[in-house]
Design brief:
The chain is an alpha/beta fold. The protein has a domain of about 190 residues: Rossmann fold, CATH 3.40.50.150. Helices cover about 40% and strands about 20% of the residues. It contains 11 helices and 11 strands. The strands form 2 sheets. A 7-stranded mixed beta sheet has the order 6-5-4-7-8-11-10, sandwiched between helices. Bound molecules: zinc ion. Zinc ion binds next to loops. The site of zinc ion has 8 residues, from loops.
């Protein structure tokens, strides 16, 4: 596959931050020096991705080996549906027709339907999971990848994307297509992994990159792709993942640049260094081991403060 430009700012100014993905799979993850967006470059081809999503590997990694969801998995969907319903109520928004892209077993939609009385519709690529939603919960689901064609004439005033956008190679193009099936006053709720989250104590980048994840976001780059696709952010929460709610608006043509991108770049550089020297420790272990003074000497007081703030904000 040919190399591509940054999907956020469309510049060609990348820095390699990872060559191994989860499970030891080879891949190439880069960070845009201009805007801080992380992406696989090259991205696996469409046919490779189709084969991957149709394979048992994706199904078992995402849903376990059984078609019956685990209690934990069920609860994740219910909790997401509940928190979105609560947000709708607290912000006094009425919704009539809800679309969940990547609707999985349908628990999120079922919960929102019960709480708001809205009609719901799901799009889900895994057939057995889509079947569970329609047969067991009575949630209507179109089986396949999202496209305006699969939606038909339906229009929605709430659209949810839970851990979907990181699987997309061009988030601006994808969110623009999503915008085309939204009503004038629609809202969208998007949740993705946070590139700056330090949940994984083994390191910021090691174990974070994975084959089906083509895009890696910070709060600012997530906001940027939404704005360019015609979604104006309303609020963002940043706990383990980034969750952003946005309303339909006019698209902007300017990409936001994440000022913390250089920090990520420096952290990545140390991660690579630590791997090269087989220290088998994370960036943060390196900082701890060599002490703050050494790190300040290397990258300057300002950047250290930025890093600490970014970590505290996670
Ligand atoms: Zn960029």
């Amino acid at each position: 596959m040919p190399l591509r430009k940054c999907p956020n700012c469309r510049e060609n100014n990348e820095f390699v931050i990872g060559r191994r993905l989860q499970g030891g799979v080879r891949g190439r993850v880069v960070l845009c020096r201009s805007c801080g967006f992380g992406y696989q470059n090259p991205s696996p081809s469409e046919s490779e991705l189709d084969a991957y999503y149709e394979s048992d590997a994706f199904f078992s990694e995402s849903y376990g080996s059984d078609v019956e969801p685990t209690d934990e998995y069920k609860q994740v969907g219910i909790n997401r549906g509940k928190s979105i319903s609560d947000w709708l109520e607290s912000s006094d928004r009425k919704v009539n027709h809800v679309l969940d892209i990547g609707s999985s077993y349908g628990f999120l939609l079922d919960t929102i339907r019960n709480n708001t009385g809205a009609r719901v519709f799901g799009v889900e690529p895994a057939p057995s999971v889509a079947h569970y939603a329609s047969e067991r919960l009575g949630v209507p689901v179109a089986t396949g990848m999202f496209s305006p064609a699969i939606i038909g004439n339906n229009r929605f005033d709430l659209i949810t994307l839970m851990h979907v956008l990181e699987h997309v190679s061009d988030p601006v193009e994808f969110l623009s297509a999503v915008r085309s099936v939204a009503t004038e006053n629609a809202v969208i709720v998007v949740e993705v992994p946070n590139m700056l989250c330090r949940d994984d104590r083994r390191g910021l980048f090691r174990h974070f990159f994975s084959y089906p994840h083509l895009s890696y976001f910070t709060a600012i780059t997530l906001e940027s792709v939404l704005r360019q696709a015609g979604w104006k952010p309303l609020e963002i929460t940043n706990i383990h993942n980034l969750r952003i709610a946005a309303e339909a608006a006019l698209p902007t043509d300017v990409a936001l640049k994440d000022q913390t991108s250089r920090i990520i770049l420096y952290l990545a550089r140390y991660q690579i260094l630590s791997t090269v020297y087989r220290l088998r420790v994370s960036t943060f272990d390196v900082c701890r081991r060599f002490g703050r003074k050494f790190v300040v000497f290397l990258i300057g007081e300002d950047r250290v403060r930025h890093i600490l703030n970014a970590v505290r904000r996670k």
